[in-house]
Fold each of these.
Amino acid sequence: MTVLTLGVHIVDVLARPVESIPQGQDTHLLEQIRVTAAGAAAGTAVDLAKLGVPVASAGAVGHDELGDLLLMLMERHGVDVRGVVRKTGEQTAASILPIRPDGGRPSFHVPGANLTLSAADLDPAQVTGARVVHLGGMDVTWGLHDPAFFELLTAARQGGTLVTMDLLSNMPDLMQGARAFLPHVDHFLPNEEQALMITGASSVEEAAAMLLAEGPAGVLITLGAEGSLVATADGTVRVPALRTPVVDTTGCGDAYCAGFIAGLLAGHEVTGAARLGTALAARVAGGLGSDAGLDGLTVDHLQRLADEGAGALPATEGI
C-alpha cells in the first residue's frame, strides 16, 4: 500500500441529462445512468487505483446491499477495502444525482454509516504504514474528532507519512470542526466556499494565508472554472483549469486530490502536483460519475495532459 484514503464512502446513482423532475407518474427518457463508488475517501481511492497507484481505503458502510455494492465496485477497480468496517443497523451512505445538461449536480443524500466512523474502527498500522494518508470528509466524520486520532496522525507523520485533507460539505456549522485537523495535515485541499467559511476571509488569497498559519505546508483552494490557488511558504500561484467539454462535475474535487497525490508520489513539488490534479479533474468532468474517463489512464499520460496547455474550464460547479 502506498496511499490510504480515510473517511467518507458513498454510493452514487447518477442520471443525465435531467432538466426537471417528472410530474406524477410520468417518465423521462435519459441518455445514461451509472452507479459509482464515491465520496471524499472512496472516490479518491478509485481514481488513484485507476492511475495505477497502490491504494487502500478505510471507512464505514452498512451491512446492507448498498455496502456490498460499494465494496464490490472498489475492489473491482483495485482498491484494498480491508479497512472498511461494516456497521450493523446503519445504512451505507448514498446519493442520487440528477445531472443537468450544463453539468450541474443537485443531489439527494443519506449520510448513513459515515457518521459512525471512529478511531476505534481503524487499524493504526494502516495509517502509520502508508506513504500518504488522505483524509476525506473530516467535516462529517465526527467520530474522528478525537485526540486519539490526532495522536495517530502525529505518529504517522513522524514516521514520514504525508497527510492530505479534503472536505465533503459546504455547511458552515461543520467547518470549524474540520479546522481542528489543520495542525495535523501537510496539505489541505478545500474548495473556495469551504476556505472562506472556515476563515471568514474576504478573498481566497487571504483565506490561504490564514489556513497556512494553522499548520499545513500547502493549501490548495479549488476555484471551479478559474482553476486553483496554490499557497506555500514560497508564495501563491494560480493554476488555470484545462479546457474540456463538461458533462458532469461530480467527483472533480476527489479527482483533483487523486491527481495531486499521484503527483507528489511521482516526485513533483506542490504546484507541479496541482497541475496533475487539475488535469485529472478536467478528465472526470468530461463524463458521468466520479471516475469517468479514467480507464487506461496512467500518471505519465496524465502528465502529458497537464503539459498540453491551460485555459478556462467551462464548469458550473467547483472542481
Amino acid sequence: MDRDGVDRALARLGAEHEAVETSLLALQDHAGRRLLEGAGLTGVTEERWAAADADITRLWTYFDAYSGALAAAREVRERRRWPNREDLVELTERLRGPGVLIAGAAVEGSVLAERLSLAELVTRMNGLYASSLDVVVAADAVWSALPARIDLLAAELHRTRSLAHSVGVRPGEHPSGDDLEAITAELAELRARVISDPLAFWLPGAGSSAPGGGRPDTGRYDRAALALEDVRREVEAVLDVRQDAEQRLIALRDVLSRADRTLAEARTARGEVLAKIAASEVPAVSGPPTVLQEQLAAAAEHRRQSRWHRLSPLLESLEERAEEELRRARESLTAVTAPLAVRAELRGRLDAYKAKVARHGLAEDPLLIERYDAARRMLWSAPCDLRAAEQAVLRYQQAAAESLQGTGSGAANGAGSGGTGAGTPGKEDA
C-alpha cells in the first residue's frame, strides 16, 4: 500500500469504528436489552437471550481488539509525515493482514485464540450485532404490543364479569359464566407467558433478514378477544330480556291464546262439517299442547325470580314454537272447513247460472227447473253429498248451455268449465 492507500484505509476503518461504537452503545442502552437482563425468562427466550448476551460480550471483546489495532496503526502512521518503505509495509500488514489476536473469543469454541484482520473483525462484529439486535428488538416488540393489549382486554373482561354477575350469568349456572372463567384463566396464563417468554410470540418476517423483521403473534389474544365478544353479546341479550320480558310474555300469551281459539273454532267447524257434509273425510283437530303452557308458566316464574339468564333462551324457544303452533291451528281450520268452502262455491255457481238463464227468458224451461231443483235440494240438504251435488250442478250447467245455444245467444262459452274438483279436498285432507 502507498501513503494515499494507507490514509484512505485508515479513514474508512475509522468511520467503521465510529459506526460500530455508535451501534454498540445504542444496543447497550436499548430498553429491550435492559428488560431482558432483568426479567425472569423461560423457554425459547431464555435460550436465545443467553446466546445473545454471550454474543454481546464477544462483540465488546472484538470491538476493544479492533480499537486497539486501529490505534496502533494510527500511531505508526503518525511517526512521520512521509512514511518510509518499512512503515508502509508495517501499515499494510496491520491494516490488511491477520494481525489482531483474539484470545478466548473463538467462534463456537473451536480454538482458544485466533488471528483476524480488521476487515474480518468488522464482518464478525456485524454478524454478532445483527443476531443480538434481532433478539432484543423482537422481545421488545412483543413486550410493547401484547401486555398492554392483554391488560385492556382484562379490564373489559372485569366489566363484563360484573355485568354478567348482576344478571345471573355465573359459572356453573350459565355456559357464558363458564366461558368467562376460562377467558380469565387464559388471559392470566397468556400474560405470564408473554412476560417470561416473549420470543415464543414472535413471527419472523418471511424472506426478511433484517434485525427485528417480523411481528408479534397475537393468535391467542385474538381468540380470547373473540370469545369475550361472544360472551358480551350473550350478556347484552340477557339484559335485553330483563328490559322487555313482560312485553314478550304478554305477546306470547296472546299468540298462544289465538292458537287455542283457532283450534277451538276448528273443532267446532269439524262438528258442523260432519253434520252437514256427507262422504267427505274431515281431518281430526288436536288439542292445544300443554307443554307450551307449562313452559310459559316457567318463564313467568323465571321473571319473578329475576333468573334472566334462564329466561332468555326459554323466551326465544317459546316465541318460535308459539308462532308455529298458531300456524298449525290456522292450517287445521283451513283443512277442516274446506268442504264447506266447496259447497259454498257450488251454491254460488248454481245461482249464477240460474240468473243467467232468467236473463235470456228461459226461467220457465221445465228441464232447467227440474235440474235446478235437483241440484238445489242436494246443496241445501244435510248431510250434503258434495260429489253428487257437483254432478247435479254440472248437469244443470250443460242443460243451460244447450238451451242458450238453441236461442242463438252464443252464451254457452263456460258451460263445461265449472269442475270444482269437489272430491279433491277430501283426497288432500286424507
Amino acid sequence: MNKRDFIKFSGLATAGLLTGNAWADANASAPKGSPTGSPEGTLTSGLDALTSMTGDVIPISREERLTRIANAQAIMAKQNIDAIVLEPGAAMVYFSGIQWWRSERLTAMVIPKTGDVAVVCPFFEEPSIRESLQVGEDVRVWQEHESPFAQVVAILNDRGIPSGRVGFEHSVRFFVSQGIVEANPKFVAVSAEPVTRGCRMYKTAHELALMHRANAITLTAYQFVYGQLREGMSQGEVKSLMNSAMSALGGEQPWSLALFNEASAYPHGTRQSQVIGKGSVVLMDCGCAVQGYQADISRTFVFGEPSVKQQKIWNIVREGQRVAMAAAKVGTSAGAVDDAVRAYYLKEGYGPDYTLPGLSHRTGHGIGMEGHESVNFVRGESTPLNPGMCFSNEPGIYIPGEFGVRLEDCLYITSKGPVWFTEPPTSLSEPLGKIVPLQTL
C-alpha cells in the first residue's frame, strides 16, 4: 500500500495514553543501531522483541460521535443545508463508526439538519453494517431489484424534508448524488464540504492523543529499522521491514516508501531498482494508524559517511522545517507557511517557486483520519490556522539525477501556537528525532 492509498486529553492521559515517560520506556527498550554495516550496528533482537504500544488506547465513543453529529447539524443550519449524504469512507466512520467499503450497491448515511441520522444499505448487508454502527437505529434496507435512492428520499420525507438543499462531499460518486436528485427533483445537490470539513478539520484532545500514539509507533519503528540497514538491502526489503515493525508495535494499516540514491530525488519514487551502498541516501516516508487516526513521518539517512553536499542539503531541509514551524502562528493563513519556506530556499539558491532543484511539492498537508486532508500548506491557501488543526511539515529538496532529502514531522495548532507530534532530528548523525509529550489545545 502506498502513501496515496491511505494517505479528552487529561482523562486519556490519566487512563494511560502514551506520555513522555512511557515514550522513554518504549524508546529505551527498542533496539539500537547505526546504518554503517559495522559490528556495532548489529541488533541483538529482531521483530519478536517489539511489543504492541496500543493496549491502553481508548476508542472513540458513541457519545463523541453524537457530539460530532450535533456539531454538523449546527453547521448545516448556518449553511442552509437541509441534510447531507455520506458514502463509506473517513467521514462515515467519523460520524457513525461504520467500517465499510464502496461498491455498485449503495450504502449511505443520512444526517438531517434536525432529527436522527439514518443508514441505507442492501438488505443482506444489514447485520454486518450494524456490527460497527454506533449511532442511530434507523437502518433502511433495499432489495436487489429496488432503488436505494427511494429509501434516501423516504428518510428525508420522514424528517420533514420533502425538498431542499442536500449536501454531498466531493468524493461522493456522481451516480449517487444524481440518483437522489432524480428520485426527488425538489432536492438541490450542494457541497457538504463546509459541514464535514468544518467538523473534521479541528481535532479534539482525544483525536490528538490517537494521532500522537500513531506517531510514537511510527518513530519507534524507524528506530528499529535504522539499526537494521545494511549494504545491499533493496527498497522492498526495507519497506517490508518497516511495515512489519509498525504492525508489531500495534500500528494499523502500515505503509512505507523507501527511496535510495537517485530515486530519492523523486518524492514518490520511480520504478528503478536501487540497493543500499556506501554513501547511499536512504529516504523513507512511512506511517500507520491508531483507531483510524494517521501518522506520517519522513526521514533521510546516509549510509556511511555523507558527502559535503548531502550534509548541506540535509541541513537546509531541517532549517526549512524550522522556518515552516515558526510561520505557523494562530491566525496566519496556511499559504503563508509555504511562502516562508520558499523565500528561505530561494536565498539558499533553490527554486524559485516549484522548480527543481528545490521544493517541487507543497510544504505540508492536513492530516487526521486520512493521510491527506484539507487544509494544506500551499501557496494561495487563505484558511487561517486555528487550534485543533493538524498538518505535516515536509519541505524537501530534490536534485534530479543526484538525490533528494525530505524530513517530515506532523504538528497540531494550539492556542499558544504549533506543537510537534514528533520533534525533528537534530543532525544527520542523529537522524531520528523524538516524540513530544502532548499539550492541551
